[in-house]
Specification:
By secondary structure, the protein is of the alpha+beta class. The chain contains eight helices and 14 strands. Strand 8 and strand 9 form a beta hairpin. Bound molecules: (3R)-3-hydroxy-3-methyl-5-(phosphonooxy)pentanoic acid. (3R)-3-hydroxy-3-methyl-5-(phosphonooxy)pentanoic acid binds next to helix 2. Belongs to the diphosphomevalonate decarboxylase family. It is an enzyme of class 4 (lyase). Keywords: ATP-binding, Lipid biosynthesis, Lipid metabolism, Lyase, Nucleotide-binding.
């Protein structure tokens, strides 16, 4: 192999039923299944070039050279599949409005999985790509597909992958991201989730109830039942954050402004508007609602947040190859 190059685009996803804990840290096997919505607004473009003249991997993110500590072990998995693939140069750009501090590892590793495997001459199926992306970041497993996606936890590397539930979402659902903090997380998701697995007395109850939430949420997607999906998502997110409060030592991702956004959504709901929130390993609040009612919700959020802090996103597509 001399030089081989490929570029891919992947969109981020937000979990409605969360993954929060691994049963195998090396293979990245989750404790439970999860369900997400891939979003159109936030994506990563990545180009990978394997070249026999390179003597090490090099990684540029938004034109800045970055350490390859997370990238090289991931590329090693691709090199195991094609030992002729040598070192690589990787160029990534994150298209997240104003560096919004939203999860970018999902789109990053999904784009890297497709670009790197294609540049290495491998023609992986979407299922194989999902398994590969999983090794970079759990949530990346789901960003291979568009729309609503389930990650089936599996019991080994072979059967832990995502499947599409509703790829071409043709019903009225959107997400509003309320950007509260653009900083790095205080506690990484890796550290946070392992702490709850090992120290929260509530962890077994989380697994049982999340498995029930997952079946009910998949049914709600199939029935286009926004209200039920929203109720399940909000309650599941709060249970995830309750695990964090019940860990030793306890921790929380909430900021005062997160609670302000949550209260606005709860008040709107008491006035009859169908809207629900979810939060991941950070303070930003994502609101699940319909396109029909989003103008009212944006107006209410605007009493506490600037227009730049409120970003509207719709269901987005799965990973695809793009022009280099
Ligand atoms: O993708 P990771 O390993 O950083 O974990 C992300 C975990 C959550 O975003 C909090 C939940 C999820 O299912 O995406």
């Amino acid at each position: 192999m001399t030089s081989q190059i490929a570029s891919a685009r992947a969109h981020t996803n937000i979990a409605l039923i969360k993954y929060w804990g691994k049963k195998d840290q090396q293979l990245m096997l989750p404790m439970n299944g999860s369900l997400s919505l891939t979003l159109d607004h936030f994506y990563t473009d990545t180009t990978v070039e394997f070249n026999s003249i390179y003597t090490e991997d090099t990684f540029y993110l938004d034109q800045k050279k970055i350490e390859t500590t997370k990238i090289t072990p991931f590329l090693d998995l691709v090199r195991q599949m094609n030992p002729q693939a040598g070192f690589a140069r990787i160029y990534s750009s994150n298209h997240v409005p104003n560096a919004a501090g939203l999860a970018s590892s999902a789109s990053a590793f999904a784009a890297l999985a497709l670009a790197a495997s294609t540049a290495a001459g491998l023609n992986l199926t979407r299922r194989e790509l999902s398994r590969l992306a999983r090794r970079g970041s759990g949530s990346a497993t789901r960003s291979i597909y568009g729309g609503f996606v389930e990650w089936q936890p599996g019991t080994s590397d072979l059967d832990s992958y995502a499947i599409p539930i509703d790829e071409k979402v043709d019903w009225d659902i959107e997400m509003l991201a309320v950007i509260i903090d653009r900083q790095q997380k205080k506690i990484s998701s890796r550290t946070g989730m392992q702490r709850v697995v090992t120290t929260s007395p509530y962890y077994p109850a989380w697994i049982t109830s999340t498995n029930q939430d997952l079946s009910a949420a998949i049914q709600a997607v199939k029935e286009h039942n926004l209200q039920l999906l929203g109720q399940l998502a909000e309650s599941n997110a709060l249970r995830m954050h309750a695990l964090n409060l019940s860990a030793r030592p306890p921790f929380s991702y909430f900021e005062p402004a997160s609670l302000v956004a949550m209260e606005i959504i709860e008040k709107l709901r008491s006035e009859g508007i169908c809207c629900y929130y979810t939060l991941d390993a950070g303070p930003n609040v994502k609101v699940i609602c319909s396109k029909a009612e989003s103008p009212q919700i944006i107006r209410a959020l605007s009493t506490a947040f600037t227009p730049e802090q409120i970003v509207e996103a719709f269901p987005g597509p799965g990973v695809k190859l793009i022009e280099c």
